[in-house]
């Protein structure tokens, strides 16, 4: 007889119910049986690496805000869209970034590289809404073309976005819930150092979040020769 952890409990010397665990190799949990921290840890440990978006917004008074988001992904290219999740704070308050996006329907997403990681990481502190986080982090604001928020001058790639859709996930305004933001990309700025304009290929080594508080860069890759999925198609 073997020991298995089922639905958050250790069941000793007992063959577990097939519904939860069909192999001694796995711990199987119903999400409902886990607390927020356990769910967060499993989710964040499972989905790695997660690229980090540096999101720049501006409020209606002109104060700039920056936040980091690793719950971030592309959506599609027609229309050019990206998405990220904005969680509600532990005190059930919305983040400044949420308020700014809802008010202005605009933001800029910048890619994060190791060169400016320390400065960008500073912006994940809780600053008041009247604090300009470009000044606080000493990152360089470069005016955008279509949106009011500036982009980060240190970043090799910036996407100017207009809010396409937002969707609440979970109980609105409660810690643990989030708003899924989908942004339509209006303009893309790429540092010529990392871009080949004849092939449209980028070679940027961005920072991603790994499990816990670990971060990493792109690391080793390998190329696959696949006649059915050629780079000519994308
Ligand atoms: C690496 C990293 C990734 C983060 N990812 C997210 C995320 O995906 N969504 C989110 O709402 N907050 C995320 N946070 C927390 C926000 O960056 C933090 O709450 C931020 O300071 C909010 O700023 P604001 O209130 O000025 O908008 C992350 C923080 C760090 C350090």
Structure summarized in a few sentences:
The chain is mainly beta.
Rg from C-alpha positions?
A: 21 Å
- Please bin the fraction of helical residues: 10-25%
Any idea of the CATH topology of the largest domain?
Answer: Pnp Oxidase, Chain A
Main sheet: which strands, in order across? 5-4-8-11-12-7-6
- H/E order of the elements? EEHEEEEEHEHHEEEEEEEE
Please name the CATH architecture of the largest domain. Answer: Roll
Global shape: globular
What's the total helix number? 4
User: Which homologous superfamily in CATH is the superfamily of the largest domain?
Assistant: Electron Transport, Fmn-binding Protein, Chain A
Instruction: Look at the structure and give the mean pLDDT.
Output: 89
Query: What is the SS-derived class?
Result: mainly beta
DSSP strand tally: 16
By CATH reckoning, the class of the largest domain would read Mainly Beta
The low-pLDDT segments are 1-19
Work out the strand percent. Answer: 25-35%
Main sheet record: 7 strands, antiparallel
Number of domains: 2
Distance between the termini: 52 Å
Question: What keyword list fits this structure?
Answer:
234 residues; mainly beta; Pnp Oxidase, Chain A; 7-stranded antiparallel β-sheet; 3-stranded antiparallel β-sheet; disordered N terminus; binds flavin mononucleotide
Describe this structure in words.
The protein has 234 residues and is mainly β. The chain is built from 4 helices and 16 strands. It folds into 2 domains: 31 residues, no CATH class; 165 residues, Electron Transport, Fmn-binding Protein, Chain A (Pnp Oxidase, Chain A), CATH 2.30.110.10. The strands form 5 sheets. It has a 7-stranded antiparallel sheet, with helices on one face. Strands 3-15-16 form a 3-stranded antiparallel sheet, with no helix packed on it. 26% of the residues are buried. It binds flavin mononucleotide. The site of flavin mononucleotide has 18 residues, from β5, β7 and α2.
